Input
Amino acid sequence: MQKIWKVKQQDASLQKKLSAALNISPVLARLLINRGLILSEEAKSFLNPALSSLHSFNLLPDISKAKQRIHKALANKEKVLLFSDYDADGLTSLAVLKIALDRLGVNSQAYIPHRLKEGYGLGRTAVKYAIDNAFSLVITLDCGISNFQEVEDLKRHNIDVIIIDHHHLHSGKLPCADAVINPKREDSDYPFKDLAGVGLSYKFASCLLEDELEEELDLVCLGTVADVAPLLGENRIIVKEGLKKLNNTRRPGLKALLEKAGIANKTLNAGHISYILGPRLNACGRIDSGHAALELLLCGCETRSRELAEHLHNKNRERQRIEGGVMDEALSRLEYDIDLNKERVIVLYQENWHQGVLGIVAAKIADRFHRPAIVVSFNDQGLGKGSGRSIESFHLFEGLLECQSHLEGFGGHKKACGLSILKHNIEGFKQSINRIAQRLCAQDLLPSLHIDLALELADLNETLLSDLETLEPFGQDNPEPVFSTNNLKLKSKPALLAKDTLKFWVTDGKVTYSAVGFGMGSYLDLVRSAKEINLAYKVSRDTWNGNNQLQLEIEDIRLS
Output
């Protein structure tokens, strides 16, 4: 699909002012402005993230109430049930709080729901387990904010509830829990609203122990990146510092996971979490039980850690196989059942698709067709579970709010959602969400490539690479900068390497660089026939086979 190149507007005077104020290069100043950092103090904080800049945990709503309740549980030797979501954010949230409660001496037990048997969130099975096993306190992590009925059921049985959740609230209402720690509450004074679930767990753990818990930042970093939280504000600080801890982790479980993934000797960045570690932690919860992943995070035995890492590796391969099958079937349904000229939200459904891969399939479809996608699997009783992913111009959670009459339940945020629906309501829901999406214009449905700066090849040097490193870690809302250069000539014949990788050399007549396009084999004929090309690219260092030189990582190609 043809991408629209959008080169960000430049304000030369502002760029000059910021460059002088911070004593940084004009290019770095431009990149900061592109990220909305126009005030010198704000930009300075971004460039120098420090743990000392984290907001006080005391600003979080109900955190004092929650702390008091934990100390009561400790004094009375109560049994505490820790209930978390089964994804990487939930698992790391649970691990961080479990470590803290163990240090305090609180008698706590982990409970992770089985995705296929129990679904998302605090369900009836977990409620019954808490009642039957005489727990007096339940703490939900990375979930619970929408479990009104379940919290009421626990309270009726004299079981207290603490909710630690970062998801959006339904109509601003709160469950009748004893404490609800969520910065998105309407009455919250907490300055940063976008902490992941594990970020909130970390804050609460720090509050309980009155300690910054820097040694746990590897786990917090892992869950934050895996949950695709925006890498700005506190998240940027957490991930920046957490990557240092992860690169030197002493946890046998993480060491074994890194070894099995083949990245034990690499300098880890956010990308390694997003594409390698996160999927392995998520795989167990997607297709089976998340308990093995939690055990790995907490494991102190090297032998057992290796066994668990092998298990997670195998589950991830199984997940990939299942995902491929569902993806093929979904694309087939799309071809015959969806008219993309009329439907701006893709809604696909079928009986007995594996629920654990629906989110991944929805994400891939949304990315391929550049429009919101919701994928639903129905069981034999006609109850459907679905996941959705969206594009920048469509707020998925708000869309679901407008057509919730068709749904049994839902949750999520701007870019992602989960929902449950009865089969006889699916067509009505499909029509309703598409009526809402009529607000999208044709331009909204075309993929855009945001380009930070148009550069000459002579502008590419070690100083630029150093500037880029100061902007790391890259991720959600802090993307790796993209540049463009026009009217380049080929210096070599383009070649197609393994895994659909395109490789060639380009020159402007003065400077020559290699260009590599991962997964861009389809551009081979275009480049072969071109006299001149325009390139959109990222700048990286090629260290393959002992090299140490700059290269252009291709984002898109156009004929000049």
